[in-house]
Amino acid sequence: MDTKGYEVIIGLEVHCELNTKSKIYCSCRSSFGAEVNSQCCPICMGMPGTLPTLNEKVVDYAVKMGYALGCTINPVSKQDRKNYFYPDLPKAYQISQFDIPLCENGHLDILVDGEEKRIGITRIHIEEDAGKLIHDESFAGTLVDFNRCGVPLIEIVSEPDLRSSAEAKAYLDTIRETVIYLGISDGKMQEGSIRCDINVSVHKPGEPFGTRVEMKNVNTFSGAVRAIEYEAARQIEVLENGGTISQETRRWDDLKNCNFLLRSKEDAQDYRYFPEPDLATILLDEEHLKKLKDSIPELPNKKTVRFMKELGLPEEDARQLVESIEKAAYFEEIVAAGQGKIVPKDAANWVLGSISRVINETGKSIAEIGIAAADLAELIGMLENKEIS
């Protein structure tokens, strides 16, 4: 997009649903697609006299993400009430974290056009999700499904280090791949497992950052790209016409490809945060933290770079392989079985071509297809040596 000499500043707040069997503060199931209002109880509905109990698996998952993003883990942390009124929030407050999050001061390395860029991570904290508003035109009103209330979330807040929609897309892709590799979320955007709020401002180089505008309701990565480009263009047009940008929250409409004013932006004091009185302080011992840190696998961004630098794969091939844990592992097994006698690029072509086609046509996994990596490596070697054609 033409920025007319302006620099675009982008920060992202990614909300990721964790794939625990139960919710964060009660024993209700947190599975997707259940009958409306069938997975809620007095605790997640905020009925008087109920007491929440923290799901410890949520803390473990958040800490694993913190280690994956190079964060400092706070061994002593707490939870806070964030107070606001909205129809999908039956308690009139959300249990979140304010001044002492579980994880802070990290980074994520992204890859854009073959170049690595480091994006700062301000914090990662745990919180409960709200319900889901269903706008029913036949009913001429809005209904609420409370199944999602209390579903565990981590919120990953970036520094304003992103400078384009392409960088934002790469960041979101890498976050999604990371939570899948860690096994803490299924990363299914179509089911709302990952959502993001986008903060955008523009300014002339050398001048102070402009006033930021937050966009809500961004539920797809392609939508995030369009939302950023639309909002940046809107702000530039306002400034070019002599106007000023107000700090506000706008709602993204993916169908109309535009946004509209939702409300003036609240500051932290508007939420009247205070420590959650019904939950104890979170204490993490060194032995448990070490166990979590040692469980972190090779992460997708590092694997992508390794495939490019060590195995000579083009960026697009490396990205496509790493998107699937199964395909990446199968590719590495083929290369290892070839014992340096086959070209890694040829192995990648087979995995991304014929093998992927069989997977798509049959709906089977690589393991179910039954083609051993060693056998495919031998076939590739014979083709390269022109022993067969």
Radius of gyration: 23 Å
Oligomer: single chain
Q: On the 0-100 scale, what is the average pLDDT?
A: 95
Proportion of strand residues: 15-25%
Helix content: 25-40%
- N-to-C terminal Cα separation, in Å? 47 Å
Order of helices and strands: EHEEEEEEEEEHEEHEEEEHHHHHHH
**Net shape:** globular
The main sheet orders its strands as 2-6-7-10-1-11-12-13-14
Q: Assign the structural class, choosing from mainly alpha, mainly beta, alpha/beta, alpha+beta, or little secondary structure.
A: alpha+beta
What is the number of independent domains?
2
Low-confidence stretches: none
Q: List the total number of helices.
A: 10
* Strands, count: 16
Q: Largest sheet, if any?
A: 9 strands, mixed
Family: Belongs to the GatB/GatE family. GatB subfamily.
GO molecular function, one term: carbon-nitrogen ligase activity, with glutamine as amido-N-donor
Catalytic activity: L-glutamyl-tRNA(Gln) + L-glutamine + ATP + H2O = L-glutaminyl-tRNA(Gln) + L-glutamate + ADP + phosphate + H(+); L-aspartyl-tRNA(Asn) + L-glutamine + ATP + H2O = L-asparaginyl-tRNA(Asn) + L-glutamate + ADP + phosphate + 2 H(+)
Organism: Candidatus Faecivivens stercoravium
